[in-house]
Specification:
Length: 226
């Protein structure tokens, strides 16, 4: 039976159906989980998709981190389950303390919506396990608050722990150290600003996003088998 992916929906989320379609194209079964739910069901992996959770009031992800579902997400992550936050989902994971650092407004205060080239810089994550370091992928970005920031101590820890998962080849937003995605120390919680679900169909210009989604599904299958 296919791995089961829970796609969490907050008020203002707008990429949930794109994510569901992409993971199903990659061979998984997707289900939508409302932010008020306190149970992830029989999920083998969780994705927090992009959008504007709670209208991005206060700051992106600041309100969503208090949604009831986040307790279940935190528990799932603590148990080693794969959790991926894409764009707004990345912001939520940092606000919830499941990932270090923060996302702030882009350099130049400009909204960025464009293809981006990113390099895989670590295999120690739920979306890059088995993907060769140095692999370059074309995956679009679509954000206003996508500049990753952290203090010098956190950055050193990320580097030392091999937790920088993706780096931009041409930094579109001013992120420190060209960071496009990071993982927690265990590698099972990952946040990335590029949208792999928007690079999962040749008609959209690239299928490179399927490389990351396939890695996630492999991790989910491992959870299910265990």
């Amino acid at each position: 039976m296919a791995a089961r992916i829970a796609v969490v929906v907050f008020p203002g989320t707008n990429c949930e159906h794109d994510v569901a379609a992409a993971v199903e194209r990659a061979g998984a079964a997707a289900s939508l989980t409302w932010h008020r739910d306190r149970d992830l069901g029989q999920a083998d992996a969780v994705v927090l998709p992009g959008g504007f959770a709670h209208g991005d009031y206060l700051r992106p992800g600041a309100l969503a981190r208090f949604s009831p579902v986040m307790e279940a997400v935190a528990g799932f992550a603590a148990g080693g389950g794969p959790v991926v936050g894409i764009c707004n989902g990345f912001q939520i994971l940092t606000e919830a303390g499941l990932l270090p650092g923060a996302l702030v407004k882009n350099r130049g205060l400009r909204f960025v919506c464009a293809p981006s080239r990113v390099r895989v810089d670590s295999e120690r994550s739920a979306v890059t396990a088995g993907v060769a370091v140095g692999t370059v992928l074309s995956i679009p970005v679509n954000h206003f608050s996508g500049s990753y920031v952290c203090d010098a101590r956190t950055l050193a820890a990320l580097r030392d722990g091999d937790q920088v998962v993706l780096r931009y080849l041409e930094n579109p937003n001013g992120s420190v150290d060209d960071i496009a995605g990071v993982a927690n120390a265990a590698g099972n919680v990952v946040g990335l600003m590029p949208h792999p679900e928007r690079a999962a169909d040749a008609l959209l210009g690239s299928t490179d996003g399927l490389v990351l989604l396939a890695a996630l599904l492999a991790q989910a299958a491992g959870v299910r088998a265990a």
